[in-house]
Amino acid sequence: MSLDIHTHAFHPKIANKVLAQLEGHYRIHPTGTGTVEDLLPRLHKAGINHAAVHSAATKPDQVIPANNWAMAMQKNHPQLISFGTIHPGYAQWEKELDRLERNGIKGLKIHPDFQGFSMTDKRLAPIYEAIGTRFVIMLHVGDNKPPEENASSPQKVAELIKNFPFLTVIAAHFGGYHHWEYVCEHLAGKNVYLDTSSSLFTIPQDLLEAIFNTHPRERILFGSDYPLFDPKDEIQLLAQRLHLKDSEIQDLLTNGEALLDL
């Protein structure tokens, strides 16, 4: 069993548009097409059995169609574990959480920077309470802005898990894209998972080693961030940069199994 905890796959009608937006924001040319048909063979070539697939509603009126797509994708492709999305501006969020749970959705993706709210926005407090232990939360963390100006940061994750200690939280991008210098101080050793996505191509070696060696190994999850990166390439780069044995890579590929009841 193996799991890529961080991938994306979009409806064919919007895939090209989303990829263009991602490239414009991150200045990273996507490796894949962003479709299920492209993702599945890449997982197979990497020797990965399952992938968590994420989407985030950037507007309240996108919540229902995004979740409908997620539920259909999971139903049609047993290898994929869809994460749902929620938005504090969507008035019926309680009913939507219930609907997601009834349909076997095990996680939620929150991308504060793209969704237009702070990770610690007060409107999210009742949503976090309602999420409780029902869902795993995948948080996008970090960006090119300094932490005090960013909607997400390692500092905000630390505040979140302090205020809501019952949540199961994955802090993406080794705990904070371009905020890695703060991860050891605020997140290492805390009750939070880190994934390896969208970091290996740019994170300084000293910070990579510091995070990897100070955070509990069982709380580090492999994530490729497909379609930006290819799962097989990311596994090889992870092993290369951290001098990992095959057994250590396998541990990272299986650490997420229990979270998603695989």
TrEMBL record:
It holds the Pfam family Amidohydro_2. One of its GO terms (molecular function) is carboxy-lyase activity. One of its GO terms (cellular component) is cytoplasm. GO terms for biological process: secondary metabolic process. Keywords: Hydrolase, Lyase. InterPro entries: ACMSD, Amidohydro-rel, Metal_Hydrolase. Residues 4-247 form the Amidohydrolase-related domain. SUPFAM superfamilies: Metallo-dependent hydrolases. This is Amidohydrolase.
